[in-house]
Amino acid sequence: MLLLLLLLTGLHPTFSQQKTRLNTGWEFVRQDLGGIWEAVRPVGAGNPESVPLWDKVTLPHCFNARDAVDPDVNYYQGPGWYRTQVAMQNPYPGGRTLLHFEGAGQKTDVYIYTTKVGSHVGGYDEWTVDITQAVADFQKTDVYQKQFKGQIPISIRCDNSRDLEMIPSDLSDFNVYGGLYRYLNLEYQPAVSLSRLVAKAEVDKAGKAGTLTVKAVLPETVAAGSAPVLVRLLDPRGKQVAQYKGTLAAKPGEQDLHQFAVKSPRLWSPDVPQLYTVQVTVGTGAQAYQQSEKVGFRHIEFVEKGPFMLNGKRLLLRGTHRHEDHADVAAAMTEPMIRQEMVMMKQMGVNFIRLGHYQQSRIVLNLCDSLGITVWEEIPWCRGGLGGPVYQAQAKRMLTNMIEQHYNHPSIIIWGLGNENDWPGDFPEFDKQKIRAFMTELNDLSHQLDRSRYTAIRRCDFCKDIVDVYSPSIWAGWYRGIYTEYKEVSRKEFEGVKRFLHVEWGGDSHAGRHSENPDNALAKITAGKGADERAGDASLFGGSARVSKDGDWSETYLCNLVDWHLKEQETMPWLSGTAYWPFKDFSTPVRPDNPIPYMNQKGVVERDFTKKEAYYVFQSYWTVQPMAHIYGHSWPVRWGDEGELKMVKVYSNCEQAELFVNGKSYGVKKRNSQDFPAAGLHWNVPFSAGQNQVRVVARQGKQTVQDEITFRYQTQKWGKPTKLTLEKVAEANGLTTVEAKLFDAQGVQCLDAASWVEFSLAGAGKLLDDLGTSSGSRKVQAYNGRAIIRLEGKPGQTAVAVQSPGLEPVLLTL
């Protein structure tokens, strides 16, 4: 953790001018206005002009913080307005005042008072609006002093309405969110400043000869002239290793600054992510403009018909995916939330991430640089087919912006051009040749903008020869086939392309649901017919047998699937890498029937960062810090016959482990990654009816780590659920936790019951629902015959109820 904290100090300050995040003082209304005047007109309390009523919010803010996972509605797609008032005074004579948007969804219009100053289409790339003249003009008016008391009114209209001529498609398996869901900054720049600093760090395969090429891009508004420029290069410890002094021509566009030769640079890698700093100062004294960028020297190569090489050595890419989505805020994740998520990934052992399926926050990329996580970043051309000129222009513009805005990040190794572009539906025409032609245009554009990185797509077989790296759809053991076919299927796909990388694999798991016989569904599956996802496979209805439809969605099954994949990946020397889909559960409008409605539940953590059991499977294969985790921390009741031998699995990266059940040792086992499951750390042991304690002591050299769980073992058999109960089980931090349970006619808990249960509340307080988690949803499938939810309530004034189809509802008064 100390190392991680030290690494985090290397986060990039991309702009070093006077910049302020505009987080507070905002009002919001989730509907359209009749016009900009309705946002700024004088309003008297209680008068008709006060309608519509505005809510106070802070930024980042998303339209769909709650309704994205509301089980009873379609999430809102339409316009919404934000407004605030800000005191502005640019300290630089002749300087520029900018609003810098780090991302806003999906179409945005910006106003200063009643003057429209800028617009943007695209929910994920950064953009700026120059408000210098509009502010100056407004400050000359009477209303500036009389109505707004010397402040500048800013009004912003965001719109995430459905639009076929816009990317991403609304057929995508994620929400197309609306709002100011990334940070918005007020920035003051002097008269001569940079709109972008380009820093290209290169090194030869041997890591001996490094070159740093520095270029400056100036805005169109810069006045003609010249200014002194100073470029400094600092090593990872902050020591200056080179500098250049010269003169910068003040003219719009890109120009070369300097090229440094760096002998034997310290190399960037996931294990030691060494970052150099490029500092550029334009001008002198109080009018000086300064900008800093972090860069890393590394050599990358995807070997044709072979693995991935970093700095001349093979690196197996051990990856996952990220959507910008979180409980209670949706896309509006704060910087601390993002940092927590990325550190959790690193602690799981990740060295690679695919950012799906759009350009993500600069905060994410800075963390990838600092933590040592290689990146595939892509534009949101996702599903639906191919639109017309407006659609295609947006895709090219977003590809250009993504590459230019994130060009300097050493973590990025791949630019993604599309995802599932073989999926029709948005247009009457689905022409593969036109899609191929446009994919070729994007591929050429990417290489024109950046020749140092690779291009890639996932799942569009008829375009796989266009890009540098291709990822087919392989979902062995979930959408198709069984998981033991994984290596065979992968090898076949590998042989059909120039460079193979497998992104997106895994399966859904309902957090808290466990199974004594998780692989039962595999008996229904016909092997040998491939493992690629096909049309309709994600549906829970109809079609051929598949685990995604016929399995139990238990964490137990997912752990077995993950365990097998990771075991096999260690025996595939030709493999460049893989990326599990995804790291965290996320919301989606196309899965209303999942155990948590509108949630894609394939994450190894829940939408609120609660770790599922599969997190520890990855840790046991991918990390070196000694760890041990007994499967079943969220499994309060196991079941079986009296005296029956039950499996206990321990996920650990240690050399050996000893298991104790109710104080008795069941022996020491040595770890062997090819001994499935749990790399040989599995024991078959008897449990006692009632409470049981299981403890493991794992050893790695002289280091020892331990883990322990307790649970109840139930031997009584049960029938179908006939009774529902509800009781208060915890109270802490002002929150009450209630638990619903399902029992049969004899009063035996139905431990495999997956019935739908729905909570509701009356009186004072509120349910903590619409969070998209197994314990934060008012409508949810039971996990092992139970379900919990938390609420705010007052004794005697709050009643909570639960109901399940065919059973008598239950009411509990606090």
UniProtKB/TrEMBL annotation:
Domain Glycoside hydrolase family 2 catalytic stretches: 303-516
Keyword entries, A-Z: Glycosidase, Hydrolase
GO MF terms, alphabetically ordered: hydrolase activity, hydrolyzing O-glycosyl compounds
UniProt xrefs under InterPro entries: Beta-gal/glucu_dom_sf, DUF4982, Galactose-bd-like_sf, GH, GH2_Domain-Containing, Glyco_hydro2_dom5, Glyco_hydro_2, Glyco_hydro_2_cat
Gene Ontology terms describing biological process: carbohydrate metabolic process
Superkingdom of this protein's organism: Bacteria
Domain Glycoside hydrolase family, first and last residues per copy: 730-809
Keyword Endoplasmic reticulum: no
Residue ranges of domain DUF4982 in the record: 643-703
Domain Glycoside hydrolase family 2 immunoglobulin-like beta-sandwich residue range list: 194-298
Pfam families: DUF4982, Glyco_hydro2_C5, Glyco_hydro_2, Glyco_hydro_2_C
Listed Gene3D superfamilies: Galactose-binding domain-like, Glycosidases, Immunoglobulins
Family indicated by similarity: Belongs to the glycosyl hydrolase 2 family.
Name recorded for this polypeptide: Glycoside hydrolase family 2 protein
Taxonomic lineage of the native organism: Bacteria, Pseudomonadati, Bacteroidota, Cytophagia, Cytophagales
